[in-house]
Structures are given as structure tokens and as C-alpha cells.
Amino acid sequence: MKTPTLISPRLVLEPVALEHARSLQPYFADYEVIRHLAAGVPWPYPDDGVETFFREVLLPDIQVGKAMAWALIPKDHGSAVGLLEWRCGGEAEDDRGFWLARPWWGRGLMTEAVTAFQDWVFFERGLDRLEVRNAVANVGSRRVKLKTGAQPLGRTACAHHEGDEAELWEVTRERWAALRGVTL
Ligand SMILES: CC(C)(COP(=O)(O)OP(=O)(O)OC[C@H]1O[C@@H](n2cnc3c(N)ncnc32)[C@H](O)[C@@H]1OP(=O)(O)O)[C@@H](O)C(=O)NCCC(=O)NCCS
Fold first, then answer.
1. Which residue CA neighbors atom 35 of ligand 1 most closely?
2. Average pLDDT for residues 71-85, to the nearest whole number?
């Protein structure tokens, strides 16, 4: 299935393409962004890291239906400042990840992006359930999950830059529909 463009009040969520790598690179090469991400993300971050990751991993995975990903573009800015990725066909089925450039934190933008994604994935794509994770110390990510219908399942092993444990959550179509006032 082709990745659709999603629209939220302040963002365009555009299917990710190699062209987005240039604007994302300086924002992602920031330890404050990377510190809670998987240990496999290198630090110090290479100068061509985003483009290499897109070309060698993400775009091929999208091509074979194992992932979908969106560049997050504020309507009043015009270029990509973050990414939302959904692993949808491989072993880590229904895992979702996201990051946003530091200057855009704290404005509710990731909550908005997740809302657009969950409206699409539950109400149009018809997914029943999504499992999501965050490093135990990642208060911002936990808060986004709490604001978007996630319910805690406990903790799970997950090696990241500052620890090896993550909180595990689930979001179900039923719960999301109830929160959004949608009748299934
Ligand atoms: C996590 C992240 C995506 C949040 O994006 P965002 O657009 O700032 O999120 P929102 O504004 O929608 O919501 C963030 C919430 O967390 C709260 N928050 C953020 N950091 C916090 C902190 N250190 N302590 C307490 N609350 C915090 C904000 O106040 C806000 O809650 P509120 O709406 O109740 O005030 C962003 O910080 C980021 O990209 N971090 C680095 C990458 C990352 O950790 N990705 C997630 C991996 S699981």
C-alpha cells in the first residue's frame, strides 16, 4: 500500500523521500534528540547519517512493505523537521517511532502528528492494535503516548543510549475511537 500524505491542523505529513534527508540531518545530529533512541543509532552522528539511513534501510524497507514513514513539515515552515515511522510488516510488527527537531518541541506538534497517524492507521487502514515503546527516562515521549490513548503494558528490554529498559504500551482501535468520539 502506498504511503498516503496526512494532514493535521499545523503539519503536512509527507511520505518520506531522499530529498527530506538534507533538512533533517542537522536536527537529528543532536544528542538531545538521540539520547533516548535505540543504541544502534550512532553517536557522534555521521554527517551523511540521515541520507545513508534513508537510502540503505528505510526506503528499501518501505519499498518491500515493511515500513511506512512520514516527514513532518510545519505548514508555516515548509521543510521537514521530524519523522514518524511505522514498522508494519516485519518482525517488529506495529512498532512506531518518532522524533522532532528541538526548536519545535513543546508545541503539541508530535501529539498532532500521532493523532493524524492514528486516525489513518485505525480508521482507514483498519489496524486493531499498535504496540509502542519509550526509554523509561523519556518523559516527553511518555506524555505524547498518554495524550494519544496509549495504555501501559509494563516494561521491556530495549537498549538505548542511556539505559536498557523501555516502557511498553498499547493503543487499540476501540480506545482511540472512544477518545476521538468515532463510532466503529
Ligand atoms: C518526544 C518528542 C517527540 C515530543 O515532541 P513534542 O512535539 O514536544 O511533543 P508534544 O508537545 O506533543 O507533547 C510533549 C509533552 O511532554 C511534556 N514534556 C516534554 N518534556 C518533558 C519533561 N522533561 N518533563 C515533563 N514533561 C515533559 C510536554 O510538556 C508535553 O506535555 P503537555 O502537552 O501536557 O504540556 C520530542 O521531545 C523528541 O523528538 N524527542 C527526541 C526524540 C525522542 O525521544 N523520540 C521518541 C522516542 S520513543
1. 106
2. 98
pTM (2 decimals)? 0.97
Which residues pair with residue 95 across a beta bridge?
A: 87, 131
Nearest-10 crossing angle of helices 109-118, 139-147: 50
Structure confidence at residue 148 as a pLDDT band (50, 70, 90): very high
Ligand 1, closest atom to CA 33? 41
Q: Is the CB of 58 under 6 A from ligand 1?
A: no
Q: What is the mean pLDDT of residues 97-112?
A: 98
CA of 106 to the centre of ligand 1 (A): 6
Return the domain boundaries, the chain.
6-180
Nearest to 135 by CA among 127, 126, 145, 125: 145
Give the span between the Cα atoms of 69 and 51, in whole angstroms.
14
The alpha carbon of 107 and the centre of ligand 1 are apart by a number of angstroms equal to 9
Q: Which fold has domain 6-180?
A: Aminopeptidase (3.40.630)
